[in-house]
Design a protein that fits this description.
This protein has 13 helices and 16 strands. It is α/β, with parallel strands linked by helices and about 400 residues long. Strand 13 and strand 14 form a beta hairpin.
Amino acid sequence: MRQRSLIAITAALAAGALTLTACGSRDSGDKSSDSGSDGTTVVIGVDAPLTGDLSALGLGIKNSADLATKQANKKNYVKGVTFKIEALDDQAQPSSGQTNATKFVGEKDVLGVVGPLNSSVAQSMQKVFDDAKLVEVSPANTNPALTQGDDWQKTKARPYKSYFRTATTDAIQGPYAAQYVYNQAKKKKVFVIDDKKTYGAGLAATFTDEFKKLGGKVAGTEHINPDTKDFSAVATKVKNSGAEVVYYGGEYPQAGPLSKQIKAAGAKIPVVGGDGIYAEDYIKLAGSTGTGDLATSVGAPVETLPSAKEFVSNYKAGGYGEEYGAYGGYSYDSTWAIIEAVKKVVDDNGGKLPSDAREKVTAAMQNVSFDGVTGKVSFDEYGDATNKQLTVYSVEKGAWTSVVSGTYNPS
């Protein structure tokens, strides 16, 4: 999953839960909602951590979703329909995510939700949305179980048909990192640490399985408490293990201090993590000794993609106070996927939203396909992104620098 801690969502945006005049009873007994001269407002919910340690990533998600709706309105992409976002703060907590999901379900003008950032939060939201036939598209969740079931390594079974994601999964990200560490970085002995959360533990497990398969040795394993910043005991274990590299499953607020303390303990070895540590704040927290640390992240660097030039330009022109971050392009594409599904439903119903718009938008999402900011956007039978590209980044001269991009090839 998961860049800089910034201000919380403004009151003006919180007030953006605009009420439908023409669509208030869309999911009740009305046959359709008028999208004539006065138009119809469709709200796209956004759930993300807008405050707290992970707020930089959450605000990038929110801003990018907002940009997508503004571009759709500017182009009059769905005739008669005006799109708006309503953003709710989950503070990276599953309980808050579930509360937000219930709130979105209760607002009849909400026809889709972008988010959340964290896989553990998604777990608390999926059933709420699925029961209401309200589509959810995450730009950041990477835990495989969300789309393929808890036993995904043995038998894949899709739990919820309303859940989709534009980010690839840890079933690919973990092994991809293992192959890079073993084959390219030539590190054969690893110490594996995770934060015991859904995302971190799952990512560490898929990395470890592949690393062992390649012939690598695990010098030790440890779990940390994500609520603390004192990792000196773990750092000492790493130093004494003789490991050549550390793999960390978790997020940057803990990974940065962990890296710094591992080096301070005398283990001058790189820390490697997933997209959860790919953030500028990681570099600040890790300090100068973080040079050489590595992270994998979904997709290719947005700035290098010809398909993303317009997005980058429009985002800068939009005057947003925060950067789009690691998931901005994916958030834009997640939002646009909902817009495409709404367009399909409206076109199929003679230019109007039907009374069962939510159910039809969810069904339409399965066949959505378009050229997005991050490349081709479409979904497989599990709701997973068909775009499986990943990138390895290294901390060099105080910034993340891309090393290599590619796709995972099973060993």
